[in-house]
Automatic annotation (TrEMBL):
<keyword id="KW-0574">Periplasm</keyword>
<dbReference type="GO" id="GO:0015740">
    <property type="term" value="P:C4-dicarboxylate transport"/>
</dbReference>
<dbReference type="Pfam" id="PF03480">
    <property type="entry name" value="DctP"/>
</dbReference>
<dbReference type="GO" id="GO:0055085">
    <property type="term" value="P:transmembrane transport"/>
</dbReference>
<dbReference type="GO" id="GO:0030288">
    <property type="term" value="C:outer membrane-bounded periplasmic space"/>
</dbReference>
<dbReference type="InterPro" id="IPR018389">
    <property type="entry name" value="DctP_fam"/>
</dbReference>
<dbReference type="InterPro" id="IPR004682">
    <property type="entry name" value="TRAP_DctP"/>
</dbReference>
<keyword id="KW-0732">Signal</keyword>
<protein>
    <submittedName>
        <fullName>C4-dicarboxylate ABC transporter</fullName>
    </submittedName>
</protein>
<comment type="similarity">
    <text>Belongs to the bacterial solute-binding protein 7 family.</text>
</comment>
<dbReference type="InterPro" id="IPR038404">
    <property type="entry name" value="TRAP_DctP_sf"/>
</dbReference>
<keyword id="KW-0813">Transport</keyword>
Length: 328
C-alpha cells in the first residue's frame, strides 16, 4: 500500500505541473486555487505555462500549481514576498492587506458586465492600480477576467429576504462582509479550498461565485440551487514580487511580459464564454439555476447598493462615477 500511495501521489503532482525543468533554466512557479480546465484562470495559466516552456526553452521553465496544491490565497502573497513563488493570480478581493483601491471591484452592482470591468481597468486609473502595491513589494502585471457572481444557498433565493439569517462564505474582503450584512445574512470569510466542505457539512448555508467556480468546485451539488443575480464580479491580478521581477535579465523580462500580454488578450476575450459553458454544464449535471424577474432583481439592488457609501472614501467618488459612466 505504501508503494502504491507514493506512486499515486507522484502521478498527481506530475500531472498538476510541468513535471521537471532542465538544469540552468530559471524556474517560475505559478500558484493558484482553481481547477485548470473549463476555468478562465486555469486555462490562462496553462496556456502561459505552455508558451513559456516552448518559447523560452533553455532560459526559463514554468510550473503551474492549480487547486491550492501549493498555497491558498491567504498564504500566497506572503510566500511571494519570501521568494518561494514567483507568480499568482488571486482575485482582487484578496489584496485587502496591501491596498484598499481594489474595493471598487467588490462593490455590488458596480459593473454591469466583464466588458465594463475591462474598460475600467484599461483606463489610466485602472492601469495605475497595478502599481499601487509596489511599495509593499508586489507588482501587478495584468488583470485576468473571470466573470459575474451568482448566489447559491441550501434554500431557494428569490428575494433578498430569503438570504436573511443565513451564513454565507465570502472571500476575505470588508466590502463583501458589508454586502452580506446589508442582506441580514452572516458573512464567514474562508479560503476557497474549504468552501465545498463547509457547504456540504452545513458550516455555511450559501456562497457567491462565478459559474466556472460553482461548476469547478461542484458547489451546485451541495446547494439547493443557484440564483442568477449577476450582482458582482470576480476578477484577478497576475502578480509578482518587485524584487524578483527586477532581478530578471532585460531580455527574459521582456519576453515573459510579451507572452503574458498575449495570453491575457487571448484568454480575457474568452472568459464570458467559459462561464456560459460552465453554467450549461451545471444544468446538464442536474443543477438548479433560478432566474430573477426584473422586479425581484431590483429588490436585490436596493438591498445591497447602500454599501457603496460606506466605501466611497476608500475607492474615490470619481472612480465610482467613472465606472457608472462605462455602464451606460
Ligand atoms: C474565491 O475565493 O471564491 C475565488 O477568488 C477563487 C478564485 O480564484 O476564483
Amino acid at each position: 500500500t505504501a508503494v502504491a500511495m507514493t506512486l499515486t501521489a507522484g502521478a498527481v503532482s506530475a500531472e498538476s505541473h510541468s513535471g521537471g525543468c532542465d538544469d540552468g533554466e530559471m524556474v517560475i512557479k505559478f500558484s493558484h486555487v482553481t481547477n485548470s480546465d473549463r476555468h478562465p484562470k486555469g486555462i490562462a495559466a496553462s496556456l502561459l505555462m505552455e508558451r513559456v516552456n516552448t518559447e523560452m526553452d533553455g532560459k526559463a521553465c514554468m510550473e503551474v500549481f492549480p487547486n491550492s496544491t501549493l498555497y491558498n490565497d491567504d498564504q500566497v502573497l506572503e510566500a511571494m514576498l519570501q521568494g518561494d513563488v514567483q507568480l499568482a493570480a488571486p482575485s482582487l478581493s484578496k489584496f485587502e492587506a496591501f491596498t484598499k483601491q481594489f474595493r471598487i471591484f467588490d462593490l455590488p452592482f458596480m459593473f454591469k458586465n466583464v466588458d465594463a470591468v475591462d474598460a475600467f481597468q484599461t483606463s489610466e486609473t485602472g492601469q495605475a492600480m497595478k502599481e499601487s502595491m509596489s511599495r509593499r513589494g508586489l507588482l501587478g502585471l495584468e488583470f485576468w477576467h473571470n466573470g459575474m457572481k451568482q448566489f447559491s444557498a441550501n434554500k431557494a433565493l428569490n428575494k433578498p429576504e430569503d438570504a436573511k439569517g443565513l451564513k454565507f462564505r465570502v472571500q476575505p474582503s470588508d466590502v463583501l462582509v458589508a454586502q452580506m450584512e446589508a442582506l441580514g445574512a452572516s458573512p464567514q470569510p474562508m479560503a476557497f479550498s474549504e468552501v465545498y466542505g463547509a457547504l456540504q457539512t452545513g458550516v455555511v448555508d450559501g456562497q457567491e461565485n462565478t459559474w466556472s467556480n460553482i461548476y469547478g468546485q461542484k458547489f451546485f451539488e451541495v446547494q439547493d440551487g443557484v440564483t442568477e443575480t449577476n450582482h458582482g464580479i470576480i476578477d484577478y491580478l497576475v502578480v509578482t514580487s518587485v524584487d524578483w521581477f527586477e532581478s530578471l535579465d532585460d531580455d527574459v523580462r521582456e519576453q515573459l511580459t510579451t507572452i503574458l500580454r498575449e495570453v491575457t488578450e487571448t484568454r480575457n476575450a474568452e472568459s464570458f464564454n467559459v462561464n456560459e459553458e460552465a453554467k450549461k454544464a451545471i444544468l446538464d449535471a442536474g443543477g438548479v439555476v433560478r432566474e430573477l424577474s426584473p422586479e425581484d432583481r431590483q429588490a436585490w439592488v436596493d438591498a445591497m447598493k447602500p454599501v457603496w457609501s460606506k466605501f466611497e472614501g476608500d475607492v474615490g467618488a470619481e472612480n465610482i462615477e467613472a465606472a457608472q459612466k462605462i455602464n451606460e
